[in-house]
Amino acid sequence: MISILGRGAVLLALAACSVGTITGAVAAIRGSASALRTTRVAAYVFGCSLVLATLLMEVALLTHDFSVSYVAEVGSLNTPTWVTIVSLWSSLNGSILLWGFVLALCVMGLAYNTRGKYPDLTPWALSVAMGVGVFFTFLIAGVANPFSPMSPVPTDGPGPNPLLQNHILMVVHPPMLYLGYVGMTIPFAMGAAALLAGRLDAAWTRLLRRWMLIPWGFLSVGIILGGWWSYEVLGWGGWWAWDPVENASFLPWLTATAFVHSAMVMERKSQLKGWTLALVFASFLLTLLGTFMTRSGVFNSVHSFTQSPIGPVFLGFLAIATIFCVLLMAFRLDALGEGERPLAMGASRDLAFLANNLLFTAFTFMVLLGTVYPLLNEAVTETQISVGQPYFDRMGAPLGVAILFLMGVGPALPWGSGATGSAVKRLIIPLGTGVLAVVLSVALGITQFWPLLTFGLAGFAFATTMREIFAPAMARSKARGEGLGIATWAVVTRARRRFGGYVVHVGVISIAVAHAASMAYQTKTPITLVEGQSAEVSGYELAYLGSAWEEQPHRTSLKARFEVSRDGASLGVLEPRLNHYKKMGTPIGTPVVKSRLTEDLYLSLINVDPTAKTASLDVMIHPMVMWLWVGGAFMLIGTVVAVWPSRSRARAAAKSVPAPVSAAPGK
Known about the structure:
Distance between the termini: 41 Å
Mean pLDDT: 87
Order of helices and strands: HHHHHHHHHHHHHHHHHHEEEEEEEEEEHH
Structural class: alpha+beta
Number of strands: 10
Strand content: 5-15%
Shape: globular
Number of helices: 20
Radius of gyration: 27 Å
Largest sheet: 6 strands, antiparallel
C-alpha cells in the first residue's frame, strides 16, 4: 500500500511542477494574474505531494515494511530507531527523495515569500524553480524510484552503511548539506528571472541575497559538521582531506561566498551585475556537479554512493543547465546594464570586493582542477594519477591568506573614491595587532612561514572586525549617553546584515587559525601497551586498564579502557573502541577525543588482543581543533542574525514594490 501511495504522491508532484513550469512562463510572458495564481497553487501542490511522499517513506522505514524496495535495501529489524529515521539519506534513492523534499519546501517558501510582490519577476522565478523540480521528480518516479514494490518480500534487511550508524552527527550533517545544496536552486531561479524579465533592482537583489544566505549558512554548517564527523568517526585524526566529495561541497560554498560579497556592491551601487549573476549560476551548477560526483560512482570516496544509472542522467541535466545559463548571460545580460556606473578604482571598498571575487574564483578553479583532473586524465590517457593534499595545500595557502588579508583591509576602505588617509589611520591599530600576534607566536616557538603569516593576518583581520562591530555602538553611546549594551543592541537591530556579516568573519578567522595550527603542529605516536602498563606521550600519562566487549542490537564493540592524566591531574577514563557490524567484515574504529581550548588528545584504537591482554593505538595531539567548531558556531550565529527579517526594512520594501499589473479579461 505504501508503495502505491508513495508513487502516486511522486507522480502528483511531477504533474504539479510540470504545470507550474508552463503556467509560470505564461504568466510572465502575458502578464496573466490567473496564470500566476495557478503557478502558486502548483507550487503548493508540488510541495505538499513530496512532503507526503517523504513522510510515507519514513513510515515504511519505521514500520519495517520490507515490501518497499528502499526499506528492503537499507532497513533492518536490529537497527536503532534514530538510525532507521536517518536511513532516508543513507542510500541513493532515498537521498534523491530527500533532495526533492527539500526542493519542494524551498519552492513553497519562494511562492509564499513573493506573494503579492514582484509581478514581473516572480512568475519566471517559480517557472525556473519548478523546471528544476520536474527533473528531480522525474528521477524519483523513474530511475531512482524508492517506492518500487519488492517480490518476494524479505523478512529482514541488511541495514544502512555502518559508517552512518557510528555517530549521532549523521542525524544533522547530511540534512544540512542538502538544505545548502538544494537551496541554491532558488537563487538560481531568481537570477534567471532577472535576466528573463530584464530587470534587477535593489529590492529583488536584497531578496536574492537573503535567499542565497540561507543555503550558504546551511552549507557552511554542513561542511563544518562533516569535518567534525570525519574527525570523530574515521580515526585518522584529521577533519579535512581534500576528498573529491568534500571538495564538491566546498566548490559551491566558495562561489556563494563570493556572491554574498558581490551582491552588496550590486545592491548599493548597481555594479558588478554580470559578476554577481555569474556567481549565482556557478553556485547552482557546482551543486549539480557535486551531486554527480557523489552519485555517479566515478570517484572513490567514503561519502559517495555506488555506481548507478543516475550518473549519466545527472550529467545530461548538468549540460542542459549549463547551456541555459550561458545563453541567458550571453543574450540577456545587456538588458540589465542601463544605469550601471563604472567601478571606482584606487584604494576603495569597491575594488576590494572585486579583488575578493577574483580570489574566490581562483580558489574555486584551483579546487575544481585538482578534483576533476585525475578523472579527465584517466579518460584520455587510461592512466590513473592522484592529486592529493600537497597540491591543495601548496596552491590554497596563498589564496587563503590573501582572502584573510582582504578581510582586514576591506572594511577600512571607503566606498567609492574616498580619503585614503583616513583609511590608513583606521588600519594602524589592526596592523599593530597583527604584528603583535606574530611576535607572540614566535615567542611560543612557532616558526613555520605559513602558520606564522596566518596568525599575523588573523590578528590583523580580527582587530578590524572588532572595530567594525563595536565602533558604531561606542559612537552612539557617547553621542546619546546610552549604556554600551543598549547602544550595541540598537545598532545590531538597525543593521542586522552588517553585524551578522562581521560575526561570520569572526568565525572564519577562528577556523583559519585553528586549521593552520592543527595542520602544522599535530603529532602522532603509535604505542602498544600490556594491561596494567603505562606510557607517557607528549605530557599525557596513559595507563591501560583492560578491554571489554559490549553487545548492541546492531553491532558488537570491543572497548579498550585507558586512565589518562596530565601533570598529576586525572582526565578520566577514555574508551576508544572497535565496532563490528554484520554488513562489514572489518571492524570500524571509534576514536575518543579529549578536547581542551589549546589542544585535543586523540586516541585511535588500532588493535586489541584480549588473549595477550594488549592494545595498540595511535596517540595524536591536535592543537586548537576546538576553535574549528567554535568558528562554525560563530558562522551559524552570524548567518541567522544577517537573514533575520527587519520589520522596518520589510515595511519599506513593501511600500516600494509596485502593485501587480491588472490582468486583461480572460487572463
